[in-house]
UniProtKB/TrEMBL annotation:
Residues 153-206 are annotated as: Disordered. This is Putative OsmC-like protein. Residues 155-164 have a biased composition (Low complexity). InterPro entries: KH_dom-like_a/b (IPR015946), OsmC/Ohrsf (IPR036102). Gene3D superfamilies: 3.30.300.20. It comes from Actinoplanes lobatus.
Length: 322
């Protein structure tokens, strides 16, 4: 193990999921009924991994924290695989208008510019959070009311009124919850809220392996991964923080109780051809909501449309670096 990165463990996992792809399927979920979002047990293939963590904070800050921590972990894995020895990985994640987001990498150690450039490319290709943001991610909303469930598909424009489903179809009709209905035009719907300005930032200080301490909006949080994914299980994962951001944002608009879940194919991050890297099948369930259809917030906007995430590199090599 180098710098807390278990390369042998990752190779063993890659061999396992190559033989049995169902073991690579992970289900992640969180629940919110108040300021604190509870991380629910993670399913890794046939295993149930209980993770007794809670998350709180501004939704955009949580999203940026997830991006910064995942970038730090991905950089650490890439550099270690290349034989580099990082001594410091600081990541600044930020959001601006457009939609546009970015990460600034401040890395020190026995690292060449070529190795660092390769690590940045690895982030672009295999960071789960970055890939989730960079590609349009369908999000399905399920309003669970005393009268029954009402699905609303949020991948495209929101409906104009609470009586319509995606594409203007009445809720409960065969078209409700299905995007791409004829006559559905983005120009027919109001634009979403403005995205956060450049003052929205998260700063991650890498500790080891998958663990970082991230500060955003005057809150500090340890973000890690479970031991089954070669973390130290000191905090929620970046993926869980992303879902927590969506849960917090939705709860502020609907009230009641919110559950958010998603699936992840671990093969994507391991570089298997054809396997998706980003989260998929994101489902938001609102129990007894006070508002029939929530207005879209910045987190939902960043998820449901392709978001440009730029990567800036700063390399502070030690004097004896090659």
């Amino acid at each position: 193990m180098i710098a807390g990165v278990d390369l042998a463990g990752w190779r063993e996992l890659a061999g396992t999921v190559r033989r049995a792809s169902w073991e690579a399927q992970a289900t992640i979920s969180v629940s919110a009924a108040g300021p604190e979002i509870t991380v629910r047990p993670m399913l890794l293939g046939p295993s149930r991994v209980a993770r007794p963590f809670t998350v709180a904070g501004d939704p955009v800050a949580l999203l940026l924290s997830a991006l910064a921590a995942d970038t730090a972990a991905t950089v650490a894995i890439s550099l270690t695989r290349q034989g580099a020895l990082p001594t410091k990985i600081n990541i600044r994640g930020y959001a601006g208008q457009a939609p546009k987001m970015g990460v600034h990498l401040d890395v020190a150690g026995l690292i060449t510019p070529t190795q660092l450039a390769a690590a940045a490319d690895h982030v672009r290709r295999y960071s789960v959070i970055l890939r989730t943001l960079a590609e349009p991610t369908p999000v399905r909303l399920l309003l669970v009311t005393p009268d029954g469930s009402q699905p609303v598909h949020l991948a495209g424009p929101l409906p104009d009124s609470p009586s319509a489903g995606a594409g203007g179809a009445p809720l409960g009709s065969p078209l409700a919850g299905v995007g791409g209905v004829p006559g559905d035009s983005p120009s027919a719907h109001p634009a979403g809220p403005p995205l956060p300005d450049a003052a929205a930032e998260a700063h991650a200080v890498w500790q080891q392996g998958a663990r970082s301490t991230v500060t955003a909006a005057d809150r500090a949080i340890v973000i890690d991964r479970p031991k089954q994914l070669f973390g130290t299980d000191r905090g929620p994962s970046p993926e869980e923080c992303l879902l927590a951001a969506l849960a917090a944002e939705t709860l502020a608009r609907t009230g009641g109780e919110v559950h958010v879940s998603a699936r992840q194919d671990l093969r994507g991050g391991l570089g298997f051809d054809g396997a998706p890297v980003g989260l998929r099948d994101i489902l938001v369930q609102c129990l007894d909501p006070q508002a029939p259809i929530p207005a879209p917030g910045p987190v939902l906007e960043l998820l449901r449309q392709p978001t440009d995430v730029s990567i800036e590199i700063e390399n502070r090599r030690t004097p004896d670096a090659p």
